Amino acid sequence: MSHDDHDHDGHGHGEHAHEHAHEHGHEHGHEHGHEHEHAHGHEHGHEHGHGQGHGHGHEHGHGHGHEHGHGHGERRARADFLAGEGRGRLLFLDAPSGLAGDMIIAALVDLGVPEQVITGAVAGLPIDGFHIHFGSRVRSGIVATSFDVHVERAQPERTYGAIRAMLDGSPLADAVKARAHATFLRLAEAEAKVHRAPLSEVHFHEVGAVDAIVDVVGSAAALEWLGAELVVSPLPMGRGFVRARHGTLPLPAPAAVECLAGFDTYDGGLDFEFVTPTGAAIVGAHAKRSARWPRMAPSRVGWGAGTKDLADRPNLLRAVLGTPSEPSVAGDGEPPAARHVVLEANVDDATGELMGHAIELLMREGALDAWATAATTKKGRPGLVLSVLSTEARADALAGAMLRETTSIGVRRHAVARVERPRREVVVETPYGRIPVKVSEGPYGPALAKPEFDACKAAAQAAGVPVRVVIQAALAGAGSL
C-alpha cells in the first residue's frame, strides 16, 4: 500500500504514493519536483507551489518569485521566542493560499521560533542523505521565510510502523514525539481509509518519506516550542488531477480531504494543489478549530512562502500569535460569533445500551461532546433528549448519524457560541509509564490538568495499583512542566 506521496510540500507524505523522485531545484536550481505530474486535465504537470519542492513526486516546478538566497541578512530581523512563550495564547494560521508542511515551518520560524528548534529536532533522527535550509522569497512586496529540504540520494521505503519505531527510538522530547506521532497517524489513517487497507500496509515511497519526516518532526518541534492553541482559517481546495502511483487522482488529494475532516474548506478557484496531505495532517492533528479570524489581540506575525507564483493571490501563509480576547458581554455592542452547533433529538423508545452506543459513536465521528438528558415526552412517556455539540463543519454528518443510530425521526439544530480555555496535550513520565495529560490554560485562573483516564486505567492494571495512584502520579508530573 502506498502512502501516496504527493504533498507539494515537498513533503511526500506518501500521500499518493507518488514516488517522489526528487528533482531538486526550485526553478532556479533545484526543482524539487514532486513527481506527481499533476496533470490537470491536460497533463501539463501541475506546478505545486507550496511544496518546496520537497520532492513529492509531483513534478511541480516550483517557481519562486524573487527568491533571496539562503542568507539570513536578507530576511527581516526578528527576535526569537523563548520556549513556551505561546502558552495561554492563540496561534492562528491564516491560509488564503492554502498550506503545506514547509510553509508551516517557514511561517513559524518567521514568527520567532528559533531555527535551531527545527534543525535540532531533525538532527536527532536516524536519517541522512538530505540537507535543509532557510531562505526568503518576496510575494507582493512581502518578504517571507522559505524552508527547503533537498534530498541528495535515493532513500529506502519506510512503512508507517518503521516511522513509528524511528520516532520512539529518537532522542526527541516526549511531547515532540507525541505531536509527530499524532500527525503521522492522521496521515496514515487517511491513506488506509482511501485505499481500504490496514495501517500496517501503509508505506511511504522513496524520497517523499524524507520530506514528510522532516516536515512532520520540524512542525511538531515548532508547535511544541510555542505551546499555543492552534486555530486555522477555512482552507481553499484546488481542482484538477494528479498522477500518482495508483493512477490519476482528483484534487484535492483524497488523503488531504480525509485529514481535514471537521475543518472548514471552500473552493479555491484554481487548478492547483492548495493544501498538501502533509499540511492537512499537521492541521488535522493539532488545530482545535477553524475560524475566519479568531477573537484575539495580535502580538506577532510571521510569513511563510510557497514556491509557486499564483495568478490571483500571493502564495503566502500568515502565522499570527495573539492573546485571546474576552468574549463580548451583553451591552458592549458585539456578541461573540456562533462557531458551534447544538443538535438535539427526542427519543422515547431507546434502551440505555442503545443510547450509550449512540453517544460513543457520535464522539468517534467528531462530536465535541454528546450527552443524554431524561425528559417527559408526548403523552407523558418517559424519554431521553440526545444532545450533541458540534462544529459547523461536522453538524450535517453528525445529524445523519443521530438519525441512523437512534429511532428519532428528526434532529433540531441551533447555533451557539462558547468561551474556551486554550488546551494542549502533554505526555508525562510516571513510575507507571507515559501518561497523556490534557492541560487547559488561558486568562481564567490556574491551569487545569486532566490525565487521560483510559491510559491511567491501563497503566494501573499493568502495575497492579489503584487507578487513582496513577492519576496522582500523572498530575504530579504535569505540575512540573
Approximate shape: globular
Radius of gyration: 23 Å
Q: Determine the N-to-C terminus distance.
A: 40 Å
Q: What is the typical, i.e. mean, pLDDT?
A: 81
**Contiguous runs where pLDDT drops below 50 for at least 5 residues:** 1-49, 51-73, 328-336
Instruction: Give a quick account of the main beta sheet: strands, pairing sense, barrel closure.
Output: 5 strands, mixed
User: How many E-type strands?
Assistant: 21
- Percent range for helical residues? 25-40%
How are the strands ordered across the major sheet? Answer: 12-7-2-14-13
User: Which structural class best describes the helix and strand composition?
Assistant: alpha+beta
Percentage beta strand: 25-35%
Number of helices: 11
How would you describe what is shown here?
It is a single chain. The protein is α+β, with helices and mostly antiparallel strands and 481 residues long. The N terminus is likely disordered. It contains 11 helices and 21 strands. The strands form 7 sheets. It has a 5-stranded mixed beta sheet with strand order 12-7-2-14-13. Strands 16-17-15-18 form a 4-stranded antiparallel beta sheet. A 3-stranded antiparallel beta sheet has the order 1-3-4. Helix 1 crosses helix 7, helix 4 packs across helix 5 and helix 10 packs across helix 11.
Which helices and strands appear, and what pairs or packs with what?
Elements: E1 67-68, E2 90-94, H1 101-111, H2 115-123, E3 130-139, E4 142-151, E5 158-159, H3 160-168, H4 174-195, E6 203-204, H5 208-226, E7 229-232, E8 235-237, E9 241-244, E10 247-250, H6 254-259, E11 265-267, H7 277-286, E12 287-290, E13 296-305, E14 316-324, E15 340-347, H8 352-364, E16 369-376, E17 382-391, H9 392-405, E18 412-416, E19 423-430, E20 433-440, E21 448-451, H10 453-463, H11 467-479
Parallel strand pairs: 2-7, 7-12, 8-11
Antiparallel strand pairs: 1-3, 2-14, 3-4, 5-6, 9-10, 13-14, 15-17, 15-18, 16-17, 19-20, 20-21
Helix pairs in contact: 1-5, 1-7, 2-5, 3-4, 4-5, 4-7, 8-9, 10-11
